[in-house]
Amino acid sequence: MKQWHIAGLCLLLSLSAMSLTTKESRWVGQVSSFYGERAGKRVTAWRNMVENTQGVSELEKLRKVNDFFNQLYFVDDIDLWGKKDYWATPLEFLGAAAGDCEDFSIAKYFSLRELGIDDKKLRLVYVKAIRLDQFHMVVAYYPTPSSEPLLLDNLDPTIKRASLRRDLLPIYSFNGSRLWLMKERGQGELAGNASRLGLWNDLRSRIDTLKMQKPIRQFDR
To answer: Nearest 5°: CA angle at 187, between 71 and 137?
Structure first.
């Protein structure tokens, strides 16, 4: 993945330094203490992006969030966290400066929800990346319930309609309250509550308690 553009990041920080809420300042302080000062600056830049993206169109929100998180490094869980499968919170993802496809998608999903996009319009979608022959996760945005979704992805940084991503085979999707089995490209059959996903429940718990893990390797250089 692309490295951070330091000059642009510093500009973002200068614009946002006086606008952090008490909660956001707490996040920056805890991440800085746990992961280091550079990690805290990434959290500040994230909060600046969210603040500056309020009030724009939903399509522009998708673009801003997708571009922001796609600047981080892609690293498999086993190499980053020492675990076969670990879903990082947005603060952990920014703290480590790296993550796998779930981490990219989760950070984008929560940022879009914070920006006011209805949960009914968003799904986290598990797919098979055909060319890579491996499972992968993307964010799907549905402008209307019956419309073809747009996909936010870290493999292909350009937001595209699902029908244009022939390299992805959908398997199942979920959001904050529902789980779907995918029957055809972009659609699916409701399969139950998202609480069936243990990793999702663990993630939500760590978000609520600000519990963080340290990576076993450093990618913040």
So the answer is: 25
Interacting residues of 32 by C-beta distance below 8 A, sequence separation 6+: 39, 40, 43
The strand pairing partners of 169, in sequence order, are 128
- C-alpha 85/C-alpha 198 separation (Å) is 11
Q: 143: closest CA among 168, 165, 118, 173?
A: 118
The 10s digit of each residue's pLDDT in 168-187 is 999 888 888 676 665 544 45
User: Would the pTM count as exceeding 0.85?
Assistant: yes
Are residues 105 and 137 in contact, defined by beta-carbon separation less than 8 angstroms?
A: yes
Rounded to an integer, what distance in angstroms lies between the CA atom of residue 28 and that of residue 44? Answer: 6
Q: Are 94 and 39 in contact (CB under 8 A)?
A: yes
Map residue 171 onto helix, strand or coil: strand
- Residues 124-165 have pLDDT tens digits of 999 999 999 999 999 999 999 999 999 999 999 999 999 999
Indicate the residue type of 26: R
Please give the Cα distance from 177 to 105 (Å, whole number).
16
Contacts of 14 by beta carbon, 8 Å cutoff, 6+ apart: none
Q: What distance separates the 2 farthest-apart alpha carbons in the chain? A: 48
Q: Which residues contact 187 (CB under 8 A, 6 or more apart)?
A: none
Q: Report residue 108 as tokens.
A: 């984008």
